[in-house]
Amino acid sequence: QLTKAPIVFLPSQTSNRPEGEALLYADELRGALDKMKEKRMFNKLTFYVEACHSGSMCLNLTEHENIYVVTAANPDESSYAAYCPGETQQAVAVGTCLGDLFSVKWLEEMTSMGTSTQTLEEQYSYLRESVSVNDTYVGGSHVMQYGDKSFTSDRVSQYMGNLSPRETQSSAYNVLDNYDADLAPLFGNPKALRAELLERAVVEKKFMRIKEEALGGTLKVLQPHHTVLDWQCYRDSINVFKKNCGPIAQHSFKHLEAFVSLCNAGVPRYRIEAAVLSVCGL
Asked: Which residue in 44, 60, 124, 262 is a FRET match for 241, CA 20 to 30 A apart?
C-alpha cells in the first residue's frame, strides 16, 4: 500500500511571466497526472493551481482518482494579484505586484492556523470565503474544488507536515485583476499607460478580425467555451498566432477563447491559419 501523499502548487500567469515561456495545456497536465498515477508515484495527491481561468485545467478530473485539486478561479474568470504598487513600499520600489491573492491567503492561513488541526475541506472553505472577499467577489475570484473530494476530511498536516501556528500581521492587499497586473508599473506614468492601453486595443481588434475572417467575413455568435474539444487545432492556432502576430502578452490570454470557440465549432485549421496570416502576416 502506497503511503505517499504529496502536495503540488502550480503558479502561473504572474505579472512578471517571462516572455516566450512554454505554455502548459490542460491535456498535458492530465497526461502528466496519468503518468504519475501509472507509475504509482502517489496514493493521494493534493494539487493547487494559481492562474486565471485555472478551473479550466481540471474539468476532466473524475471523482475516483485520488487527485484533489483547488484552483484560484473558475474556468470563466481571472485570478487576482496582490500587494500591488500603491499600498506597500516594497511593491512601489520594484514596480510590480508582489504576490497572487490566492497564494498569499493560502500561505497566510497555514502560517496563522498551522496544519495539524485543520482539514482540507476547512482549508478550502477559508480560501473560498477570503479570496471571494466574503462572497462579494469584489476584487476576488471563485476558489473551486475539482477531482476526488472523498478525502477532504484529511488533515492538512498529512500533506504539508506539522506546522505550528504563528502570529501573523496582515496589511492591505491592494489587488488587481491579473490581466491588469502588468499595468501596475505604469500607474505613475500616464503617457506610458495610455500607450499600453492603446496596444491592448490593437491586440483585441486582431483577435476579433481573426475570428471574423475565419468565419467567412461575419462575426457569427459562437458559444463561448473554456473546455477544449480539439487540442491539436487549439495548439496549432496558438502557434500560428505566436509565429505571425508575436508573443502572447499576459492580457492577451483572455482572447484565446476565440480559438477555443472556432476549433470547437469545427472551423478547419487551414481557415484559422489563413485568417491569422491575413491579419498579422506580411
From this structure: 60
pTM: 0.86
Distance of CA 222 to the CA centre of its chain: 23
pLDDT at 88: 52
Q: Are 237 and 273 in contact (CB under 8 A)?
A: yes
Dist. CA 146–CA 70, nearest whole Å = 6
Between strands 45-50 and 67-71, the pairing is: parallel
On whether the CB atoms of residues 160 and 7 are closer than 8 A, the answer is: yes
- Cβ atoms 246, 279 nearer than 8 A: no
What is residue 14's predicted lDDT score, i.e. its pLDDT? 40
Q: pLDDT tens across 251-261, in order? A: 888 899 999 99
Give the per-residue pLDDT at 225: 66
Q: 161, 162, 122, 159: which is closest to 44 by C-alpha?
A: 159
CA-CA distance, 63 to 205, in Å (whole number)? 41
CA distances from 206 to 75, 201, 272, 276 (A): 23, 9, 13, 9
**Residues in the chain, pLDDT under 50:** 1-3, 14-19
The answer to whether the beta carbons of residues 100 and 49 sit under 8 Å apart is no
Contact between residue 12 and residue 24 where contact means Cβ atoms under 8 Å apart: yes
What is the edge-to-edge ordering of all strands in the sheet holding 80-82?
99-100, 80-82, 176-177
Residue partners of 246: CB distance under 8 A and separation at least 6: 280
Is residue 232 classed as helix, strand or coil in its secondary structure?
helix
- Give the Cα separation of 48 and 160 in Å (integer): 12
Write out the E strands in the chain. 7-11, 45-50, 67-71, 80-82, 99-100, 144-147, 176-177
Q: Which residue has the cell 516566450?
A: 20
Spatial neighbors of 34 by CB under 8 A, at least 6 apart, are none
